[in-house]
């Protein structure tokens, strides 16, 4: 069994839900307190043992590349002023094996994954979507890698969601519960009506995939909006090899919407050592005025 060493982070989306901020700024660079959202994703991958990360980006995404590149002028300035803690924060983002591939004509998540085929080769890999931040004692990506070591097959992260919200997600139809928190998948249902949903287990933004997925992606025809859907390819992959679902029980923060982004900033701010006390006091003061 080959080790899981590589990760794909799709980042070619236009970020229209955050306009006008994302007209010239990559959505993935919007900060949670003081850290770009994509940095949280990269940290999760590294903490899980991933060695090489490819970001599939598009136009107006140069700021992502710059963030993970060295900045000698800034570093020298911080060093001269003896701001060593800040210098360490800056340098932490440069000693990472980061690669960038341009998705010139975005055609969906499946197409973004297919763009990185040559980078992945014949190895298993993980996909981390930037709209979800995950927190647990063991990083979710590491949990998926551990499951892969058990099964040797593709494994998706799922989470139980309120039944009335299943229409907002892709949902799995579990064929069988293999062990606690691990399911064999019978099929996938995209955004079902609550009364038609086969389960409340929704697919969230982490995937561990075997390289056979590329063959399925190459055969997958564009669906709604002319996009190649990753879930369609996974569904056909499930016909030739087992696909599993791992139930995540940690904390998930949806930063793909304005309200989710604001809620996440408040939650993380209340934990941030530099601002938590002042933020807590401000919230109490604000609540008293409402």
Automatic annotation (TrEMBL):
Nucleotidyl transferase domain ranges (all copies): 6-265
Keywords annotated in UniProt: Nucleotidyltransferase, Transferase
One BP annotation, GO: UDP-alpha-D-glucose metabolic process
Record NCBIfam families: galU (TIGR01099)
Protein name (record): UTP--glucose-1-phosphate uridylyltransferase
Catalytic activity, as annotated: alpha-D-glucose 1-phosphate + UTP + H(+) = UDP-alpha-D-glucose + diphosphate
Xref: Gene3D superfamilies: Spore Coat Polysaccharide Biosynthesis Protein SpsA, Chain A
Gene Ontology molecular function: any one: UTP:glucose-1-phosphate uridylyltransferase activity
Pathway the protein takes part in: Carbohydrate metabolism; nucleotide-sugar metabolism
Family membership: Belongs to the UDPGP type 2 family.
InterPro entries: GalU_uridylyltTrfase_bac/arc, NTP_transferase_dom, Nucleotide-diphossugar_trans
EC number: 2.7.7.9
Top EC class of this enzyme: transferase
């Amino acid at each position: 069994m080959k080790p899981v060493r590589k990760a794909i982070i799709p980042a070619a989306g236009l970020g229209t839900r955050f306009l006008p901020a994302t007209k010239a700024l990559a959505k993935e660079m919007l900060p949670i307190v003081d850290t770009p959202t994509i940095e949280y994703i990269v940290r999760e991958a590294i903490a899980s043992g991933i060695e090489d990360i490819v970001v599939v980006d598009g136009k107006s995404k140069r700021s992502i590349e710059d963030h993970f590149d060295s900045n000698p002028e800034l570093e020298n300035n911080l060093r001269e002023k003896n701001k060593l803690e800040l210098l360490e924060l800056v340098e932490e983002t440069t000693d990472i094996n980061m690669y960038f591939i341009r998705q010139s004509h975005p055609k969906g998540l499946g197409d973004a994954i297919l763009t990185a085929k040559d980078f992945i080769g014949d190895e298993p890999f993980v996909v981390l979507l930037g709209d979800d931040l995950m927190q647990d004692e063991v990083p979710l990506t590491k949990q998926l890698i551990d499951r892969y070591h058990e099964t040797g097959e593709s494994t998706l992260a799922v989470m139980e969601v309120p039944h009335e919200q299943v229409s907002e997600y892709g949902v799995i139809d579990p064929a069988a519960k293999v062990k606690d928190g691990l399911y064999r998948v019978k099929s996938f249902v995209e955004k079902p009506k609550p009364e038609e949903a086969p389960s409340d287990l929704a697919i969230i933004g982490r995937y561990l995939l075997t390289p056979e997925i590329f063959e399925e992606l190459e055969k997958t025809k564009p669906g709604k909006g002319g996009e190649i859907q990753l879930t369609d390819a996974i569904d056909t992959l499930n016909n030739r090899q087992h696909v599993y679902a791992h139930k995540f029980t940690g904390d998930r923060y949806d930063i793909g919407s304005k309200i989710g982004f604001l809620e996440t900033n408040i939650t993380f701010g209340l934990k941030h050592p530099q601002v938590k006390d002042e933020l807590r006091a401000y919230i109490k003061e604000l609540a008293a005025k409402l």
